[in-house]
Amino acid sequence: MSAKGEVLLQAQAVAKHFGGVKALRDVSLTIRRGEVYGLIGPNGAGKTTFFNCMTGLYVPDGGSFIFDGAPLKADAPDQVADRGIARTFQNIRLFGNMTALDNVMVGRHVRTQAGIFGAIFRGRAARAEEAAIRRRAEELLHYVGVEDRADDLAKNLSYGDQRRLEIARALATEPKLLCLDEPAAGMNGTETEALRLLIDGIRADGVTILLIEHDVKLVMGLCDRVAVLDYGALLIEDVPSIVQHDPRVIEAYIGVAA
């Protein structure tokens, strides 16, 4: 059994270029099992590019990822999910014309065993598995606090509920590492506090979390360690109390040294 505090993800000199733009410049960082790890930086710092390289949307131009003790190749996103990495997106990507329940069930199907023939012929095992998927999806809707909207179309949910629904869908894949890309964006104070409690609960249930977020107060209050990117390069990786007083971080955010 893996212990809390062991290395779960190690990024080694990850680089990504778009023409002459160096979006990531040899970024190396380490995420430990059981922690909430924050990744922050000004707009255009390379945070989402890092997510996209790690989750198979982009192929890095250099470097590598080691996840759960084995190399993480530049695979398709579904193969990365199968390894145990799930993510949400900066811009919500739900199936708007499907119900909230169906959105979570879609995420759960990455862990199904029935296969295409089971889905077509609907044997006893396939029907039992589908019932289990539905039950788990209902549990996750309750977990994130949107169980009363289970039968509503995703596009009709409030913005905050859509954010929570996207997290439920990611959790349905049973991730070892949950990557949240600006989950508090557009939320009011009440919704942000509910999100903080949800993330705390997810961590307490044993899921490691990688958090990109512009709400620095939320990051500093939630995260065990924080990494700061600026112009694609890693400025610092340390505990929040050290990071928030580092002159390089202050300069990156407000443009002057402390």
Q: What do these coordinates show?
A:
GO terms for molecular function: ATP binding; ATP hydrolysis activity; L-isoleucine transmembrane transporter activity; L-phenylalanine transmembrane transporter activity; L-valine transmembrane transporter activity. One of its GO terms (cellular component) is plasma membrane. Pfam families: ABC_tran. InterPro entries: AAA+_ATPase (IPR003593), ABC_AA/LPS_Transport (IPR051120), ABC_transporter-like_ATP-bd (IPR003439), ABC_transporter-like_CS (IPR017871), P-loop_NTPase (IPR027417). Keywords: ATP-binding, Cell membrane, Membrane, Nucleotide-binding, Transport. The protein is an alpha/beta fold and 258 residues long. The chain has a domain of 158 residues: Rossmann fold (3-Layer(aba) Sandwich). The chain is 39% helix and 24% strand. The protein contains ten helices and ten strands. The chain has a six-stranded mixed beta sheet with strand order 6-7-8-3-9-10, with helices on both faces. Strands 2-1-4-5 form a four-stranded antiparallel beta sheet, with helices on one face. Helix 7 links the parallel strand 7 and strand 8. Helix 3 crosses helix 5. The longest helix is centred in the middle third of the chain and has 21 residues. The N and C termini lie far apart (45 Å).
Instruction: Provide the CATH superfamily of the domain at 7-84 and 175-254.
Output: P-loop containing nucleotide triphosphate hydrolases
| H-E order | EEEHEEHEHHHHEHEHEEHH
Largest beta sheet: strand ordering = 6-7-8-3-9-10
Low-confidence stretches are: none
Radius of gyration, taken over Cα atoms and rounded to an integer in Å: 19 Å
Name of the CATH architecture of the domain at 7-84 and 175-254? 3-Layer(aba) Sandwich
The portion of residues forming beta strands comes to 15-25%
| Major sheet characteristics | 6 strands, mixed
- N- and C-termini, Cα separation: 45 Å
Broad CATH class of the domain at 7-84 and 175-254: Alpha Beta
In total, how many beta strands? 10
- The coarse silhouette is globular
Q: CATH topology of the domain at 7-84 and 175-254, which one?
A: Rossmann fold
- Secondary-structure-based class equals alpha/beta
Mean pLDDT: 89
Helix content class: 25-40%
Treating each run of at least 4 consecutive H or I residues as one helix, how many helices? Answer: 10
GO molecular function: ATP binding; ATP hydrolysis activity; L-isoleucine transmembrane transporter activity; L-phenylalanine transmembrane transporter activity; L-valine transmembrane transporter activity
Keywords: ATP-binding, Cell membrane, Membrane, Nucleotide-binding, Transport
Domain ABC transporter: 9-256
Protein name: ABC transporter ATP-binding protein
